[in-house]
Amino acid sequence: MLSQKNIAVIGLGYVGLPLAIEFGKKYKVLGFDIDKNRISELNSGIDRTKEADMGVMLFAMNLFKNSKNKGLRFSCQTEDLESYNVYIVTVPTPINQFKKPDLTSLLRASEMIGKVLKKGDIVIYESTVYPGCTEEDCVPVLEKYSQLKFNQDFFCGYSPERINPGDRVNTLTKIKKVTSGSTPAIAKQVDELYQSIITAGTHLAPSIKVAEASKAIENAQRDINISFVNELALIFDRMGIDTNDVIEAAGTKWNFLKYKPGLVGGHCIGVDPYYLAHKAESLGYHPQVILSGRRVNDTMGMFVANKVVKLLIAKNHIISKSNVLILGITFKENCPDIRNSKIIDVVHELKQFHVVVDVYDPHADKQEVKKDFNINLLNSIKKKYSAVVLAVAHKEFLNLDIASLTSSSSSVIFDIKSFLNRSIVDSRL
Q1: Containing domain of residue 299, as a range?
Q2: Same structural domain for residues 416 and 367?
Q3: Residue 234 and residue 201 share a domain
Q4: Which of 58, 113, 321, 401 has the most CB atoms within 10 Å of its CB?
Q5: Residues with catalytic annotation?
Q6: pTM for the model
Q7: Are 25 and 60 in contact (CB under 8 A)?
Q8: Residue 197: which CATH number?
Q9: What CA–CA distance (Å, rounded) separates 372 from 121?
């Protein structure tokens, strides 16, 4: 049992920063990130993810200056990790171009921790992985670089993150937390640690693998449900039926789940099913339902682009060199997160038709969009367009006069999110 828990949170993105802040109110916490610019911004009170409660963050930082046992500080220097005994890993775990798990950041973080690991220390992983990854992939790295023995000299836990970017209601402390540990005693310590900050309570899973699997299926389930309504959208489009009207009608039954069609991106729903599928395939089972759902959802960007082009043709527009405005590039509304945004699929497909595409998003970081997607976001909307595509339901777009952005009465307005006043929309997803 650790008498004094000094916590280092590795990775200060959408998951790690809120966690470090919350723990910093009660424990001595180091928020660590290899990005020097990120650390510099945080030390200056700037959070580009807009997930942090800045007042609480500054309180926790001031607490560190005035107390030896509590408070939060930030660093990118690996030697600063040495004085901590609980390491929480919240680095990204994306997929690569072949849609296979990319554990690069996870294993590098494990190597870094292994070099400072001491007897009695606990390493807790929050990054999304496939069942078995913590013990089969991360632990060997920790053992190699620490020269310590797992479950004898050091221990591990897994507590999957459940952060919902942009959600100001279901925040970190208000979402029940799944916890686990590599021994019953460590599992209890990990659970008690999270109980100290999570007001919604915790659920202690019987093993690390169970906790890992719970995270994978949370998002795989949503992905499959959305893929079903997306497939319905493809079918009903051929029938000339509005999918949202059908869902509203079916939703009058008490046990119907009202999922909506859309572009499935982000760091979880569009990624986690591939982690589960990867593990299944390594065991000799080819998952049918999970991957079929992924295939449907991955086609929706192409469908949207082709639908917009068909609508333009129906209104006698010349497609080549037509101007199209995309409203929104982030993967969801009212947040700056562009990770795995599927709107880029719409942009790429439209460009295949030699359409001139502009993108406007008041939430996205222009430099990040340029780096990741090679798109120059508009600072403001000054042109008129043959088609306007509402891709993200940012609250700011409700105040836009969409009709004033069109070049003529025959321009097309396509609403992916069923967000705009229906009277001005030509078609919805």
Answers
A1: 228-428
A2: yes
A3: no
A4: 113
A5: 268
A6: 0.93
A7: yes
A8: 3.40.50.720
A9: 37
